[in-house]
Amino acid sequence: MIEEKGILFILSGPSGVGKGTVRKELFNRKPDLKYSISMTTRNRRTGETDGIDYFYKSKEEFEELVEQGQLLEYAKYVNNYYGTPRAYVEETLAAGHDVFLEIEVQGALQVKENFPEGVFIFLFPPSLVELKNRIVNRGTETTELVLNRLKEARKEIEMMDAYDYVVVNDQVELAVSKVQSIIQSEHLKRERIEKQYKKLLEDEME
């Protein structure tokens, strides 16, 4: 029996491209995927559960884990740390589950350094005009902030080289189908199956 390890999939792309929408629809279709639970130093809110919503740590504990290289990526927002714990990801993969991480471009590049065997998917806007419309239609940002986000998006699009796949998010259903195809094809890659077979043959020879 081949015991297949899970694969870490990283979905990333500029702000406003629709990462969250694509991820939600993907999880509706593939409930067996595991979402990567983040670690944070912010206080637990009412109704939140440790190990389900977040892993909650003190600032000292978090900084110690950073020192030990126990985070695949982390960032600080409004005096609180947020990050992706290596141990949770590795344990979930070892149990045979795929792990899905939806993250900003800077965080994805950190993951690439710390976990290069992950599969990196860049969600691309149909056009910068469309991206601008999506950010503007949120109605939460001033004109200045919208322009800053677009400048940032241009820079992030130039970082596309670091990714394995690019999916254009013009229609959510289509984008999700493409991500599903990527997941399936990664599991069928010769290198992955070869490793499993070699282990199987070694076990049988013993």
Please tell me about this protein's structure:
- The chain has 206 residues and is an alpha/beta fold.
- The protein has helices at 19-29, 59-67, 86-94, 105-114, 128-138, 143-157, 172-187, 190-205; strands at 8-12, 34-35, 39-40, 55-56, 71-77, 80-85, 99-103, 119-124, 165-168.
- Strand 5 (71-77) and strand 6 form a beta hairpin.
- Helix 1 (19-29) crosses helix 7 and helix 5 runs antiparallel to helix 6.
- The longest helix is centred in the last third of the chain and has 16 residues, at 172-187.
- Its EC number is 2.7.4.8.
- It comes from Virgibacillus indicus.
Task: Give a short summary of the structure.
It is an enzyme of class 2 (transferase). It contains eight helices and nine strands. It is of the alpha/beta class and 206 residues long.
